Amino acid sequence: MKATLMIFSGLVVLLAGCSTPRERCLNLAAQNLQTVEGLILDTQGNIQRGFGYVTDVRYTTALDWCYDPWGNVRTCTRTQTRPVSKPVAIDLEAEKRKLASLQKQRTTLVKETNQKIASCEAQYPLDASAPVTAAPE
């Protein structure tokens, strides 16, 4: 799940250049809440399974076709990375405490996020002639 969050965060940053100032403001306003909600889902999954997962990166070397400086094709080695998830033992009581803490933090973040979203909407009101886009979750 952490790898998915990293990929999603990277996509959000990549796509931020394609969004309007209003969309960027709304995405930034909801970012912390979305992170905490993802952590809540991870923690709930750990409690239900009775164990957690850690993601490790494995490096392998593979042969590939490359071009030398003169444009000739030759073989070369290329390092590839691959995420690997491994199960790990967890302290269920600590996970339950962490879940309770995250849920409490989520309650506070919902209020803060709603205030930030209201500020974004005041700063960047929807133009009646502009197309309506979906609001971030």
Question: How is this structure best described in words?
Answer:
- This protein has 137 residues and is an alpha+beta fold.
- It has two domains: 86 residues; 37 residues, no CATH class.
- 55% of the residues lie in helices and 25% in strands.
- It has three helices and two strands; from the N terminus they run H-H-E-E-H.
- A two-stranded antiparallel ribbon has the order 1-2.
- The chain starts with a helix and ends in a 14-residue tail after the last helix.
Provide keyphrases for this structure.
single chain, 137 residues, alpha+beta, 3 helices, flat
* Average pLDDT, all residues: 86
Sheet with the most strands: spatial strand order: 1-2
Distance between the termini: 18 Å
Order of helices and strands: HHEEH
Question: What amount of the residues lies in strands?
Answer: 15-25%
Tell me the count of domains: 2
Secondary structure class reads: alpha+beta
Number of helices: 3
Characterize the biggest β-sheet.
2 strands, antiparallel
Q: Please give the number of β-strands.
A: 2
Q: What gyration radius follows from the Cα positions, in whole Å?
A: 22 Å
Please tell me what the overall shape is. flat
Uncertain stretches of 5 or more adjacent residues:
none
Bin the helical content: 55-70%
